[in-house]
Amino acid sequence: MVTAREPKQDRSRATRLRLLEATIASLADQGWSATTVGVVAEKAGVSRGATQHHFPTREDLITAALDYMFDTRMDDARRESTALPPGLARTEAVVERLVEYYTGPVFKAALQVWTAAAADPEMRARVLPLEDKFGRVAHRMAVEHLGVDDRDPQTHRLVQATLDLARGLGLADVLSDDSRRRGEIVRAWAGVLDSSLKMNKGEIAAASG
Amino acid sequence: MVTAREPKQDRSRATRLRLLEATIASLADQGWSATTVGVVAEKAGVSRGATQHHFPTREDLITAALDYMFDTRMDDARRESTALPPGLARTEAVVERLVEYYTGPVFKAALQVWTAAAADPEMRARVLPLEDKFGRVAHRMAVEHLGVDDRDPQTHRLVQATLDLARGLGLADVLSDDSRRRGEIVRAWAGVLDSSLKMNKGEIAAASG
Fold first, then answer.
1. Residue ranges of the DNA-binding region (chains A, B) (predicted)?
2. What is the ipTM of this complex?
3. Residue A185's pLDDT is what?
C-alpha cells in the first residue's frame, strides 16, 4: 500500500509499477491503437506529467512494460521450479506451464506490439532485442526445468520446437477460449517429447560408451 | 490482361481479384491501421466507387481477401500433393510446406486481422468463422498429404500440434528472417512426428490384430 509516510523513492517505484501493469492490461484488452500514454495514465490513476517523467514516449512505456512483465513471469517460474515431479509428469508439467505463459495477458500484450512493429521500423528496432532476450531466457528456463542437456543439438531443437508450439497455441487462443483442445495437444506433445528426449539420451550414452 | 473487348463480367472479376490481392499485400506490408479502402483502391488502380460496389465496407474487403487467398493457397496445395515422395521424406515435405504457408504473406496479413479483432468485437465476429474454416481445411489437407488415419485420436492430436507449431514458427518470422533456425526445427519435428505416427500405427494394428 502507498501511504503518506512511505519514502519518496518507494512511491516512485509503485507509480512506475502501476503504469507498467496498466500498459499490459490495456494492450491485452484494448489493443495497440487504443493504448496511448493518456489512456494508460488514466487507467493507472497517475497524472500525465508524472507518467511522462517516468516514460518520455509511448514507445518507452510499452517496451518497458513488456520487459518488466516478462522478467516478473520468469522470476515466478524460477520459484515454481522446486515443486516439479519426476519423469513424464515433469515433462508434462513443464510443457503445460510454458504454454500457460503464452496464453496469458503478457503474451497477448506482446502480440499486439509485435504485430504493430511488423509495419513500424522504429518499433521493430526496439522490439527485436526484446524478442531475442525473451527467446533466450524462455529457452534456458525450459532446459533447466526439463533437466536435459542442451549441448546436444537434437535436444536443443526439440526444446525450441516446444517453445514454437507454445507460441502457436498462444495465437490460437487470441479470439476464443481454446483451452480444451490445447490441453489435449499439450499432453500429446509432452508424451512424444519425453520419449524423444529419453531416446536421444540413450543414443548419446550408447555412442560415447 | 484486361482489354476493351473482354466481357463485362470478366472485367468485374479481374477488378475484384486485384482488390483482394492489394488488400493482402497492404495488410502484410503496411499493417492493419494503414489498410484502408482508399489505400487498397489506389494500390489496385481501381476507383473508390468501383471498390465500394464490390466491397461496401472495409471489413467486407478484408474478410473477403483472407477467405479468397486462403482458398487459392489450398487449391495450390491440392495440386502439389501429387509430387510427394514416400516415407520420412514425405513427412518432412508436408511439414515443410505447411510451415511455408504460415510464413507467407497470407499468414502475415491474417495475423494483422486476428490481432486487431482481439480488441474489436465486430471484427472478431467476422473472423471467428474464418478461423474455424481455415483450421479445419488445413488439418484435412495435412492428413491427406501425410496419408495417415485421422480417426485415431493420437494421430489427430499430433497433426493438430504440427499446425500449432507451424503457426508459432510463422509468428517467429514476423520481425526478422527466421528461416535458418526454422529449417532445423522443421527437420527435427518431422523426424519425431514420423516415428510417432508409425509407432502409433503399429500399436493400433497390434491392439486390433
1. 36-55
2. 0.92
3. 98
User: Model confidence at B67, in pLDDT bands (50, 70, 90)?
Assistant: very high
CA–CA gap between residue B199 and residue B179 (Å, rounded): 30
Residues of B in contact with A164 (CB under 8 A): 165, 168-169, 172, 185
- In chain A the first and final C-alpha atoms are separated, in Å, by 60
Residue-level pLDDT, tens digit, chain A, 209 residues: 555 566 888 888 999 999 999 999 999 999 999 999 999 999 999 999 999 999 999 999 999 999 999 999 888 888 877 778 889 999 999 999 999 999 999 999 999 999 999 999 999 999 999 999 999 999 999 999 999 999 999 999 999 999 999 999 999 999 999 999 999 999 999 999 999 998 877 777 777 75
Report the 10 Å Cβ neighbour count for A78: 12
Q: Which of B105, B99, B107 is nearest to B187 (CA)?
A: B99
Cell numbers linked to B153: 485420436
Domain boundaries of chain A, sorted by first residue: 66-208
Please give the Cα distance from A59 to A62 (Å, whole number).
5
Cα separation, B170 vs B100, in Å, equals 8
Cell triple for residue A79? Answer: 520459484
What is the spatial distance between Cα B87 and Cα B99, in angstroms, rounded to a whole number?
19
SS3 label, residue A75: helix
Residue A109 in grid coordinates? 500484450
Task: Tell whether the model's pLDDT for residue B207 goes beyond 80.
Answer: no
CB A136 within 8 A of CB A71: no
Q: A65 near A26, Cβ under 8 Å?
A: no
The Cα of B186 is separated from the nearest Cα of chain A by a number of Å equal to: 8
Residue A110 near residue B170 (C-beta atoms within 8 A): no
Q: Environment class of residue B60 by beta-carbon count within 10 Å: exposed (0-12), middle (13-18) or buried (19+)?
A: middle
DSSP B49: H
Helix, strand or coil, per DSSP, at residue B86: coil
The alpha-carbon gap from A107 to the nearest alpha carbon of chain B, in Å, equals 12
Chain A residues inside the 8 Å CB shell of B173: none
Query: Angle A58-80/A8-30 helices, nearest 10 degrees?
Result: 100
**DSSP type of residue A175:** S
Across chain B, the runs of DSSP E, i.e. the strands, are none
> Which positions in chain A touch B107 (Cβ < 8 Å)?
none
Cell of A103: 496464453
Q: Are A48 and A36 in contact (CB under 8 A)?
A: no
